[in-house]
């Protein structure tokens, strides 16, 4: 986060900052360190100079104090005051502290004031001046130079100094230095910009080349060839572009070959699928035809035979009844009744098998009528579930294959509902779409639902439904989740397929 | 050429004077006590200067007697003569009212004059060989130093006004202009010195009311600032900052003392006198600073005592 700004900087900003920031930090730190270190040094220097100045003035002003001629001394004091800005005032007094001469501001209220005072002492030479005291007066004593000793104070020197002017001068020098450094920084910044530009132009050409490479243009040409690392980078990019171009051509060749093979495989798969669909469709047709033939055989021959047997058994019973009431007659009449009842049961079973093999309503009433009959049977067989059926009044007549497909699919769906869904409501909706040349079938319930992804691979019924729909070129969509019911939408083309 | 001839004549005069002295007091100088002089040395202290003087006296007069008390000698061995070394000893000798002549040695003329005035010398008379060189010699030195007629300023006080006739005479002899400023009792020497600001050089006389240790440095500074060389009056002053002086060494003084002693022993008391023998001391640094050229003629100026026969 804290380096986000730095990360967003370009080469120009980075180069300028490299040229300016370290030098700035170094100068500021060094200047401030020197300034603060020199403050104590200046104070110490002022103290030392004040003592030296007071001592020197005490020495040099002795004659002026004694003689009373302070004019030359006054000139000297003015000269000192003009030379040294840290001197605030200089005062020379006699032994009684009467002011003899004074220069500077005696009433200063400046801070950092230091006062240095020294007595002006008379210098007493160790010389025999032939006074009246005891020892002999020797005109030629030994020794080469006379020594002096301090006598009484004949006056006082008072030096008032302040470190402020020197500190102010120091501060001004720091400011001047900062100004120079600021100018140097500007120059450095400009130099950085120029260098950045010289660096950025080759990098821009490199970036342009890289963008071209990213967009697939591997024909890289860098006219402004540089030396050093930049030149190496440019050469590397050119070489990389060539290598990428070759790799891409090889990959494209491989992809082309793989794509061709894949297309062939897809075509073969599609052909196989088509053949499978045709095969399934054909097998369905054959199965349905065989069912219809078996149902017809059962209806025409078996049912007719069973009906004849039943009629004969009934006539045999009636004949037995005519024989009287003997036991044999009774036995014959009873057997005849049992044969008639068994034959009736067989007849009903044959009719059920016939209906299952080939509902005759399909051929007589069409899809809508056959479905209405189917749902009536479900309502009567499963009263715990409400079965709704919605269809347009005039539902178009469909081909036999399409009708059988739709019927079998709906039959399988309703069978699944009663077997697995534990639903309280199931609804079948037929919808004709003449403009789109297809019909839409929706079967939905409020049952337990199921995980479609799991059942897709495991449910045989669902697979059969898909196969039947695919065989006629239709589509099927199953939407279900556990505890939310199931909705199956089937689109069947009325033409083609 | 003239200078060489003068040197030659000077040397001849010096040799002749030395021979006369040898004839006159040769035996007394060699053994004064043996000719009946009972030399008694009175001292005031036992300082280095006194010891130096006594050593020189012992070399000349091995049989002399030394005491700080003038009344210490009760037995006479001959004609008694007292020599007072320094002003303290002179004062003690006079206060002791001695009955023998006394010769004051190593006492400056102003101090001797003051002691003489204040203590009224009784009998027998007291004489002296002053400690400082004669103003005449100092003026000769100044004349030789400049080799032209220059003006010489002298500060005197009431204590040294007696020197003024001598100084005037000396200035005339040396062809010098003279300007004497009297330091009054109410004014400082520095102020009085301002009145001599036009003088080429200043002659300092041993007047402690003018040249005191407390103001000596300031006086020398004042003259230095006005480029006025100061001449006088001892080598210690030369060391302190005067340009040159005429002076007498202890041996010079004692050589003269031989003659005076002989006269006193013979009953004649000479007047107090300045040293007869003298020489020159120069402060080369001061001379250079004041641009005063000091040649060998100046350095060799003076009069040396004759060689003492062994």
Count of helical segments of chain B?
12
**Topology-level CATH name of the largest domain in chain B:** Rossmann fold
**Overall 3D geometry of chain A?**
rod-shaped
Class computed from helices, strands and strand pairing of chain B: alpha/beta
Please give the oligomerization state of what you see.
heterodimer
- The name of the CATH architecture of the largest domain in chain A is 2-Layer Sandwich
* Total number of beta strands of chain A: 9
Give the domain tally of chain B.
Answer: 2
Please describe the biggest sheet of chain A, giving its number of strands, its sense, and whether it closes into a barrel. 5 strands, mixed
Please state the overall shape of chain B, judged from the principal axes of the Cα atoms: globular
Instruction: Indicate the CATH topology of the largest domain in chain A.
Output: Beta-Lactamase
Please provide the ordered H/E string of secondary-structure elements of chain A.
HHHHEEEEHHHHEHEEHHEE
Structure in words:
- The complex is a heterodimer of chains A (497) and B (310).
- Chain A is α+β, with helices and mostly antiparallel strands and 497 residues long.
- Chain A folds into 3 domains: 9-128 and 148-185, PAS domain (Beta-Lactamase), CATH 3.30.450; 218-358; 363-497, Heat Shock Protein 90, CATH 3.30.565.
- Chain A contains 11 helices and 9 strands.
- In chain A, the strands form 2 sheets. In chain A, strands 5-6-7-9-8 form a 5-stranded mixed beta sheet, with helices on one face. A 4-stranded antiparallel beta sheet of chain A has the order 2-1-4-3.
- In chain A, helix 2 packs antiparallel against helix 5 (164-214) and helix 9 (400-421) packs antiparallel against helix 11 (460-471).
- The longest helix of chain A has 95 residues, at 228-322.
- The two termini of chain A are 63 Å apart.
- Chain B is α/β, with parallel strands linked by helices and 310 residues long.
- Chain B folds into 2 domains: 2-131 and 248-277, NAD(P)-binding Rossmann-like Domain (Rossmann fold, 3-Layer(aba) Sandwich); 135-247 and 280-299, 3-Layer(aba) Sandwich (Rossmann fold), CATH 3.40.50.
- In chain B, 44% of the residues lie in helices and 17% in strands.
- Chain B is built from 12 helices and 11 strands.
- A 5-stranded parallel beta sheet of chain B has the order 2-1-3-4-5, sandwiched between helices.
- In chain B, helix 2 links the parallel strand 1 (37-43) and strand 2 (65-67).
- The longest helix of chain B is centred in the N-terminal third of the chain and has 29 residues, at 2-30.
- Chain B starts with a helix and ends in an 11-residue tail after the last helix.
- The model of chain B is unreliable at 1-34 (pLDDT under 50).
- The A-B interface holds A 62-63, 66-67, 122-141, 143-146, 148, 151-152 and B 44-45, 47, 49-50, 52-53, 85-89, 105-108, 110-111, 114-115, 131-133, 190, 206, 208, 211-218, 221-222, 225, 233-237, 239-241, 245, 247-250, 275, 281.
